[in-house]
Write a structure and sequence with these properties.
The structure holds 2 protein chains of 2 kinds.
Chain A: H1 6-20, E1 27-31, H2 34-38, H3 41-54, E2 60-64, E3 76-80, E4 84-88, H4 96-104, E5 113-117, E6 119-121, E7 127-129, H5 144-147, H6 165-170, H7 175-183, H8 186-196, H9 208-217, E8 224-229, H10 238-245, H11 247-261, E9 265-270, H12 275-290, E10 306-311, H13 321-328, E11 352-356, H14 357-369, H15 371-375, E12 378-379, E13 382-383, E14 385-392, E15 398-403, H16 408-415, E16 425-430, E17 436-439, H17 449-454, E18 463-468, H18 473-487, H19 493-510, H20 516-532, H21 536-540, H22 543-551, H23 553-562, E19 574-578, H24 588-592, E20 598-599, E21 607-608, H25 618-622, E22 628-632
Parallel strand pairs in A: 1-2, 8-9, 8-11, 9-10, 14-18
Antiparallel strand pairs in A: 1-3, 3-4, 4-5, 6-7, 12-13, 14-15, 16-17, 16-18, 19-22, 20-21
Chain B: H1 3-12, H2 19-31, H3 36-46, H4 50-59, E1 71-76, H5 79-83, H6 86-97, E2 112-113, E3 119-124, E4 136-138, E5 141-143, H7 151-157
Parallel strand pairs in B: 1-3
Antiparallel strand pairs in B: 1-4, 2-3, 4-5
Helix pairs in contact in B: 1-3, 2-3
Classes of the chains: A alpha/beta, B alpha+beta.
The structure holds flavin mononucleotide and FE2/S2 (inorganic) cluster (FES).
Flavin mononucleotide (FMN) binds at residues 200-204, 206, 228, 230-232, 317, 319-321, 354-356, 359, 461, 535-537 of chain A.
Chain lengths: 636, 163
């Protein structure tokens, strides 16, 4: 079916809206992004499918993406006509029968109810009314987790079916594409983006309009746009969810970008670890082509644009734009000095505009709601929202979308509800291997590009890993250096050798041989690597070291002078012991010990042979009597 | 080496953008690893120098140049998993499977295969399931909230036998 006018789009919208807002058939949607699947969401889906078929029920079943509250997954949305959506949490296949019974008996006493949704702002087509029942269940935005959030990027995530283009159209999808193609000139689009103040969400926060303008003014018959979906920060998964939950918003953004700069081809470069995102984007591309929203003569105009997907192959540095381009061209991903910028000489030496996944998803919103509307969200110079992946030792893990300028404490303590297991939050790490650690006494800082940079961290792409007393900051530095050293492409000396030397110093410290002067050398080297590396990888890789040295020097010092790891993480500073008063001699630890170094006969206290112990922690994990503990080692 | 299979894969990727990577990825997906013969064949047929193909195959951590075990276990070593104890999980797996880290292959890649070739163990940089940390992937399946306690049970599903 071809869509070539606003009337066609509206027709699809009208006929499909009842899928989202059913008139008489209850509907069930299971949250099936990778996170939901990994905790059994697909089993729940299959069980619903089976039982609905067996019982021959008039209930529709479909998939949805992830609404972001990953802690509560698997999530199931139940839509009852006129009453609204109920979100059920931590659902297992055993719950399915009860849920179906409750629906067919027209009851409301569901188990495991998390919250209700009566209306939802899908932003582009505005608010959709799903019904006004279930009044005694908390509203979704009354929950701590959602209360301080503002959903613009995640406007459809966890509500619509990501594998159904019609549902995307029903919530206003591709209307912005229509507006761009039929009512706006490229320069007008660039102006709109300029008004919005949108800055790139891939890390550096470069103004999107400037990049587009540069690519637009280049004279060339062949140009490209690229979507950077390499999401290299390990510990961050915003982009994965954006692709899996709302793939069309990215595609629509890219087509608008292509039209604006005059490109006929787009490439989505996506990391290999995200097979489901690849699958959903592939499907979305095919559906968009079917409706003539992508491919030749888009929306009946003379604009042609095609998108292909290229899978990465496990190299962090390929997230850097020039390395990414080299990778698409079939080379090793080694960065090149800029200028020339990709806008001048990019893919196959043609003008290329490259943006992050989240940047692209903002484009349709700006076109439809105007740049001015967007610029009122967030703060001056830091407009709009940002999605963070709030993970680590925090209570409410999940994807959190807040206005830029929100204080860190609001994210950690209000939305995240502080540290898990009654511990205290010590720090957060933002920006991944290029970012830094921020101690809890600076949590009144607001998250925006400038404030975070001032602290020595960076905004990065949105990773936010929470750390508590049991996290060793020296170990964290060691972890990141291990990562960046491994991922360094090896082209420039400071990054190749500098990171390795810094890593060796850290190894020395955590093995118990550190000396006071090591910290001075470490800092000096870090600053040198930062100043002299060729690309962003080396220029930012010292950040985790520099920030931990700045804010947690005492932890380094206890490793060096007292030979103590305060968090009891570094293996050379700890040992495991068995409390003979508590040990019942149940033999479980001895049986489970992978190196067989726990001795003792049945019903008698056991002992660990310290010389041969590999400190794997198995005994501590398996003991049911709390008899094993981790203690500082006397001498190193 | 099945030249038929390789020909079909090569034919599939006509767009120069992403061509080489896509071909190598699909060959590895079908054959488990990239054999020397496959690389030579691909190089000849797509007219890209073997040196360049080899450079790609060694640069990207995704590619294996040696045969792998029947089941591939990847331990996520991303930040979220790290702070939630991924190192302990990896350490335990090495012992349970009786493979040691110092057996890193000559091409510098971390891939340890058990003697019976039933398992290969490697590490990964985040599966995007950080909210379920620590995470282990076995073949295509992702296991969240891993603990040392649950490892043996899961391994048994894949034919692991306790020594
Ligand atoms: C080492 C390194 C890794 C990067 N990784 C990513 C990444 O995973 N995703 C991303 O969008 N940008 C990444 N970038 C930033 C890109 O080079 C580029 O600035 C970005 O894709 C531009 O898009 P934006 O303007 O929309 O942010 C990385 C940069 C460096 C130096
Ligand atoms: S850090 Fe392990 S899945 Fe992301």
């Amino acid at each position: 079916m071809k869509i070539s006018s606003l009337k066609d789009l509206d027709a699809v919208k009208e006929s499909v809206l009842k899928k989202l807002v059913p008139l008489d058939t209850p509907s069930i949607r299971v949250g099936l992004a990778t996170c939901g699947i990994s905790v059994g969401g697909n089993l729940v889906y299959e069980e619903f499918k089976k039982q609905i078929k067996e019982k021959n029920l008039n209930i529709s079943l479909s998939k949805t993406g992830c609404i972001g509250f990953c802690k509560e997954e698997p999530l199931v949305n139940i839509t009852i006509p006129k009453r609204g959506i109920l979100i059920l949490h931590k659902i297992e296949p055993e719950d399915v029968n009860g849920i179906l019974e409750t629906i067919i008996n027209n009851k409301e006493n569901f188990d495991k109810v998390l919250c209700r949704i009566n209306t939802w702002d899908h932003i582009i087509n505005g608010i959709i009314d799903y019904g006004n029942g279930f009044k005694d269940i908390p509203l979704w935005n009354e929950l701590n987790f959602f209360k301080g959030q503002k959903k613009i990027v995640l406007r459809n995530a966890g509500i619509i079916n990501p594998e159904d283009i019609e549902e995307y159209i029903a919530v206003g999808g591709y209307k912005s594409l229509y507006k761009s193609l039929k009512e706006m000139s490229p320069q007008e689009i660039i102006n709109e983006i300029k008004d919005s103040g949108l800055r790139g969400r891939g890390g550096a926060g470069f103004p999107t309009s400037l990049k587009w303008e540069r690519a637009y003014t280049e004279k060339n018959s062949k140009k490209y746009v690229i979507c950077n979906a390499d999401e290299g920060d390990p510990g961050a998964y915003m982009n994965r969810n954006e692709m899996e939950s709302d793939p069309h918003s990215i595609i629509e953004g890219m087509i608008i970008g292509g039209y604006t700069i005059g490109a006929s081809e787009g490439v989505i470069y996506i990391r290999a670890e995200y097979p489901l995102a690849v699958e959903r984007l592939q499907k979305a591309i095919e559906e968009a082509k079917f409706y003539s929203l992508l491919g030749g003569n888009i929306l009946g105009s003379d604009f042609n644009f095609d998108i292909s997907i290229v899978k990465g192959a496990g190299a962090f540095v390929c997230g850097e734009e020039t390395a990414l381009i080299a990778s698409i061209e079939g080379k090793s991903g080694r960065p090149k000095p800029r200028p020339p910028y990709p806008a001048q000489k990019g893919l196959w030496n043609k003008p290329t505009n490259i943006n992050n996944v989240e940047t692209w998803t903002n484009i349709p919103v700006i076109i439809s709601k105007t740049g001015k509307w967007f610029s009122n969200i967030g703060t001056i110079n830091n407009t709009g929202t940002k999605v963070f992946s709030l993970v680590g030792k925090v209570n409410n893990v999940g994807l959190v979308e807040v206005e830029l300028g929100t204080p860190i404490e609001k994210i950690i303590y209000d939305i995240g509800q502080g540290a898990a297991d009654n511990k205290d939050v010590k720090a957060i790490q933002v920006g991944g291997p290029s970012g830094g650690c921020i101690p809890s006494n600076l949590f009144n800082t607001s998250v925006d590009y400038n404030s975070l940079t001032k602290l020595g961290a960076i905004m990065g792409s949105g990773g936010m890993v929470v750390m508590d007393q049991d996290t060793c900051m020296v170990d964290v530095s060691h972890f990141f250096l291990d990562f960046t050293m491994d991922e360094s492409c090896g082209k420039c000396v400071p990054c190749r050798k500098g990171l390795k030397t810094m890593f060796e110093i850290l190894e020395k410290i955590i093995s118990g041989n550190g000396e006071e002067q090591d910290l001075i050398i470490l800092e000096e080297l870090a600053n040198t690597v930062k100043k002299t590396s060729l690309c962003g990888l080396g220029q930012t890789a010292p950040n985790p070291i520099l920030t931990t040295l700045k804010y947690f020097k005492d932890e380094y010092q206890s490793h060096i002078s007292q030979k103590i790891c305060p968090a009891k993480i570094c293996k050379n500073f700890i040992e495991y012991t068995i409390d003979t008063n508590k040990c019942t001699g149940c033999t479980v630890c001895a049986k489970q010990c992978p190196v067989h170094v726990i001795d003792g006969s049945k019903n008698k206290p056991h002992f660990i042979n310290q010389q041969q112990c590999i400190k794997c922690g198995t005994c501590l994990a398996v003991c049911r009597f709390n008899a094993v503990s981790k203690i500082p080692k006397n001498k190193v | 080496m099945e030249t038929n299979l390789l020909d079909n894969i090569i034919l599939k990727y006509q767009n120069p953008s992403g061509k080489v990577l896509s071909i190598l990825e699909e060959v590895q997906e079908k054959q488990g690893y990239l054999s020397r013969e496959s690389l030579i064949y691909i190089s000849k047929n797509i007219k890209v120098p073997l040196t360049q193909i080899y450079s790609i195959a060694t640069f990207y951590s995704f590619f294996n140049l040696k045969p792998v075990g029947t089941n591939i276990i990847s331990v996520c070593m991303g930040t979220a998993c790290h702070v939630k104890g991924a190192a302990e999980i990896l350490n335990n797996l090495e012992y349970l499977l009786d493979v040691k880290e110092d057996e890193i292959t000559s091409d510098g890649k971390f891939l340890l295969t058990t003697q019976d070739k039933n398992f290969s163990l490697n590490v990964a940089r985040c599966f995007g399931c950080c909210s379920m940390a620590p995470v282990v992937r076995i073949n295509e399946k992702i296991y969240g909230h891993m603990t040392i306690n649950t490892l043996p049970k899961i391994l048994k599903e894949y034919g692991w036998i306790k020594k």
